[in-house]
Amino acid sequence: MRVSDVYVVWRGREYVPGGRDRATGRIVIQFHGPEPFEDGFERKRREARQRWPTWSRWVPIDEIERKFSAQTVGMWRDAEFRVFGQSDDEDVAAGGRDVLIDGPVKDAGVLKPPSWWKQIEPLNFVDRNLVFGWVPWSELTDLREENEEEPLPFSGS
Fold it and tell me: Which end of the chain has fewer CB atoms < 10 Å from its terminal CB, N or C?
């Protein structure tokens, strides 16, 4: 299952788009992994909770086959959250990979007082309607992914 983000397909594989150079008609595509599938990718950084580095490459915009957004949501502790990050590190938790969630997607703050949200470790409380943090995949239920096609040519940043 994908995390919530915008994706592009280049040469049959999914990547996350980055910046765009309008002068040259190119876009940066990137992914996290041990090694790229194609030549021409540059190794970038490795973030916390990621086993693999980020790889990126400039490609012509007209070679992008498809663009779509994915929204993945699931239930955690009786509230619906958006999944927007995934750890590559299998050792992070005994149950396997962790995911970064934010939300709640629906206004669950109306159902539960702010004091309740402040106590739900390991999440960080931002305000009445937003908390975020890392939780094990195994604690999420009712996961679903919704995809929405976006028009080409690529009109991103």
Answer: C
